[in-house]
Amino acid sequence: MTLEQFNLTSAVRDHDFAETVYPDGHKLFTCIQCGTCTASCPTSYAMDYSPRRLMRMIQLGLYDDVLKSKTFWMCTTCFSCTVRCPRGISITETFLSLKRMATAKGVEKKVDSARFYQTVMDVVRRTGRMHETETMMRWMLNPQVLVGKPLRVLGFAPLALALLRKGKMPLIPHKIEGVDQIQAMFDKAAEIEAREEVAR
Amino acid sequence: MKYAYYPGCSLEASAIEYDASARAIFRALGSELVEIPDWNCCGSSPAQATDYLLSLALPARNLALAEAMGLDTVVAPCSACYTTLYRAEEHCRQDPELKAHVTEILAAANLEYEGKVRVRHLLDVVANDFTPEEIQSRVKRSLKGLKVVPYYGCQTVRPFLAYDAPDQPMTMDRVLAALGAEVMPYHLKTRCCSGINITSSKDVGIKLVSDLLVAAEGADCIATVCPLCQMNLDSYQRDVSRHLGREIKIPVIYLTQLMGLAFDLPDKDVLLSKNISPQQPVLDRLGI
Questions:
Q1: A72 within a domain of the structure (yes/no)
Q2: With an 8 Å Cβ cutoff, are A76 and B195 in contact?
């Protein structure tokens, strides 16, 4: 793969980008590009930009290119980079922040993991818990997920059957008693986020 | 000693054997896991990737419920739940403004979270609240001769470093040694299994799981302390075999199940039949 080069003279740059990343913000400028994060990352080989490169792109304010990147979606949140970063930057939290920004911007639409996360949140909102069976069914049968990859469902079928046979896939979701509380919390969080500048 | 117990969603479904064995070994050790009444999903990665405030408030509801129980420690057997609950506690402590938002969200549910309760991983409690001698004294059937690879996984020890080292932790090794098992050296103790990303990026997940299984070959079994690690290592061995072009088959078992075997607990407390990978080689080795 040829690495993409950015023309920093013509590129549209948002110089406040790093400041908006939570929780490290301005601290991201202290990244010395040592590459410990990339070397520690179990999925860097599957990313379009390595974690180190993405950190540099954030510093340079390459907002669109960063948010369109696959890199942070490939992060499994294993925190290897975070505990090793000599600057004490939480790269994992940075990537979580990018996931939320990309979701808010709507640029995550084509990302399977983003769809999966949303599916989980919908189930949690409705029942208070993440019912594994329902989550998997809803996610796999999502038309957007199925399109172009109809074999995906079949790929998970043996696992589903094995779990079913072992009695590990209860079919009826457990709705918690305080499900009203959960829904009130979802609404209140949305209200606060609409009302004021809060960490996202 | 009584602990507030947060099982987490997996332990109600794909990890019922972890739930049963965890409760049973605490009873055997003269202690008790008291389930937090009406607990909710902690939100884990999905909440963290979609809504920051909710990613703290969802776990905080459980911490508030635990505080109302009058217990000071929450025990989480799932590493993702553990990290998520711990993160809520940590972020709220570090940022009063954020804490105020979380307080406001919980108020909408008529709940209050003070920040008094401490979150600990089940492994931390098992390894540190009971001495190796106490564990040994419960052993009725030593695991002598059983070669066990201790696989900790990532969020069990990262990023909070609350009780063990992030790369070469030793807590599980100590517990296994107390059971009489032969603990194998393993350089991938905390390398990631890809967690729930295996669902959306299966190729990547299979590669990571494959690396972990190959490095464990030669052992009689792999011990885990996280339902995601267990699920990925235990139930994708057929995919891994296809990926490798040769068969790989290794029993994957929860640490708590191994403790149950060593304590000679009844089947209903160990539930070995629930694991996907065949556990017969482990039983054969132990002469059961």
A1: yes
A2: yes
pTM above 0.90, yes or no: yes
Instruction: Tell me the ipTM for this assembly.
Output: 0.96
Inform me whether the C-beta atom of residue A163 falls under 8 Å from chain B C-beta atoms.
Answer: yes
Structural domain range at position A174: 112-195
Structural domain of B256: 138-286
Both structure tokens of A77: 């949140």
B194 contacts A76 by C-beta, under 8 angstroms: yes
**Bond preceding residue A143 cis, omega within 30 of 0:** no
**A121, A164, A191, best to mutate vs chain B, most B CBs in 10 Å:** A121
| Per-position pLDDT tens, chain B of length 288 | 999 999 999 999 999 999 999 999 999 999 999 999 999 999 999 999 999 999 999 999 999 999 999 999 999 999 999 999 999 999 999 999 999 999 999 999 999 999 999 999 999 999 999 999 999 999 999 999 999 999 999 999 999 999 999 999 999 999 999 999 999 999 999 999 999 999 889 999 999 999 999 999 999 999 999 999 999 999 999 999 999 999 999 999 999 999 999 999 999 999 999 999 999 999 999 998
Grouping H, G, I as helix, E, B as strand and the rest as coil, residue B150 is strand
Cβ separation B109–A182 shorter than 8 A: yes
As to burial, measured by CB atoms within 10 angstroms (0-12 exposed, 13-18 middle, 19+ buried), residue B114 is exposed
Does one domain contain both A25 and A101? Answer: yes
- We report the CATH number of the domain holding residue B109 as 1.20.1050.140
